[in-house]
Amino acid sequence: xxxxxxxxxxxxxxxxxxxxxxxxxxxxxxxxxxxxxxxxxxxxxxxxxxxxxxxxxxxxxxxxxxxxxxxxxxxxxxxxxxxxxxxxxxxxxxxxxxxxxxxxxxxxxxxxxxxxxxxxxxxxxxxxxxxxxxxxxxxxxxxxxxxxxxxxxxxxxxxxxxxxxxxxxxxxxxxxxxxxxxxxxxxxxxxxxxxxxxxxxxxxxxxxxxxxxxxxxxxxxxxxxxxxxxxxxxxxxxxxxxxxxxxxxxxxxxxxxxxxxxxxxxxxxxx
Length: 271
What we know:
CATH topology of the largest domain: D-amino Acid Aminotransferase, Chain A, domain 2
CATH architecture of the largest domain: Alpha-Beta Barrel
Low-confidence stretches: none
Largest sheet: 9 strands, mixed
Order of helices and strands: EEHEEHHEEEHEEEEHEEEEH
Shape: globular
Distance between the termini: 24 Å
Mean pLDDT: 96
CATH class of the largest domain: Alpha Beta
């Protein structure tokens, strides 16, 4: 069962509510993290919370809840969702809070946690490893210079439009370039390219999100950063990876890619 919590109240996400003047709702002015729950525990939680904290500081928001504040809430959410043995997707949300007036102006003075709003949702889900077809988006590009590209914000309009473009072209997903025409990422996942026996991933300077699984690959020495051109090279194997999936690409813009095979062991080695 899916459970949610906001403003001290537990319930179903379809039944709970938030004020209509919240900046997260009105302006997509907020951050979130999606954490895998497996074996009754959040996976790589500290890495997610570090990115959350770093992103909030980067965008001038107050610090979101830390591990000590979250621990009892997460334990109760897992119990309520009956996920002691199953897997689920935990979404942690941090909005800049209520909007006093119209417009985008920020409150004067330092950002305070009590001005912000936190809520969570836990939904049973199964990690996905099935192959995908993809296109290179012609409509949407990542802005490598934007602070927002470094943060997992509520604003997913670009990803939605890239996915829509792909589906209208008969593909499952889209790969995005940056403004310089270099490979960046998928619509909701980081990109991995297996080339001449080495996993490569675009650098953060490309405008890709600093994904947690991407970070683990680099930390463990399983991948290295490299700027990548939009066209595959012969023999390339491409994957899209995030905290809930690791999916090989079987074609890009109709061009067949070398099959990677079973992506699940690579993904599980990062947990």
